[in-house]
Amino acid sequence: MMNDKLTIAVVGLGHVGLPLAMAFAKKYSVIGYDSNRIRINQLLEGKDKTGQVNAQQLAESGIDFTSDPSSLTAAGFIMIAVATPIDSADQPDLSQLLEACSIVGRYMKKGAVIVFESTVYPGATEEECIPKLEEYSSLESGVEFFVGYSPERFNPGERKLPITKIKKVVAGQNEAVLDYVAEIYGSVMDAGIFKAKSIRVAEAAKVIENTQQDVNIALINEFSLIFNHLGIDTGAVLETAGTKKAF
Ligand SMILES: NC(=O)c1ccc[n+]([C@@H]2O[C@H](COP(=O)([O-])OP(=O)(O)OC[C@H]3O[C@@H](n4cnc5c(N)ncnc54)[C@H](O)[C@@H]3O)[C@@H](O)[C@H]2O)c1
Question: What domain range includes position 129?
Fold first, then answer.
């Protein structure tokens, strides 16, 4: 069921959240919430410090930028895109994510669909985020509110490629949620969507996508050192090897 009157909220308007809000604002009424008032004021003044969106695009987006969490009550579909770094002991730091869950839990309306975009370890959405949403909303997950997961997957080296041109993985806590989340994302993602078998599968797929990227970068850095010693241009080597399909 597609709802033209659906109001969508994006929580966390950083590198991932802002382009996401911009993409959905082409079709829906969008609330852009960030707890950082400075970030909100800058966006209202037409300044995006991540350099992805210009002043005219911000002005024309129609996004309701706010640092007032009570505005989330108006949203039927809420995407959470806050940072998930590691701490000084290399452990996942979920503090921003859990804080966002407590805020969303406090203000979301009954029946809302919450989709996590942040990169997390497999199991984090169901074991950490859903309990926090339930605790702060006093609502039951899967009955009174619904949860999905859709990892952002743009490459840092390809910032110019709009996120709508990258196939989007979506997952839901059950079949009905999956279908609904797929319908909403599918309505703005030109490259289409892929329905993952479960939230854990989508979380794990994102982990190996990032790992493959990191291993690739580290490997080519090593080769680059060797090629430098041999007086060979690494860029020319990559161009040559890249003519093999799937390199
Ligand atoms: N940046 C990338 O290239 C990239 C690519 C793919 C996936 N990701 C993942 O996407 C997620 C977001 O990363 P990012 O780079 O956009 O982070 P970011 O630091 O650029 O943005 C996070 C935003 O969330 C806001 N925020 C923090 N706590 C909040 C709260 N409780 N309520 C509302 N807003 C809050 C911050 O003020 C900030 O503006 C992470 O999990 C990251 O791993 C990032």
Answer: 7-210
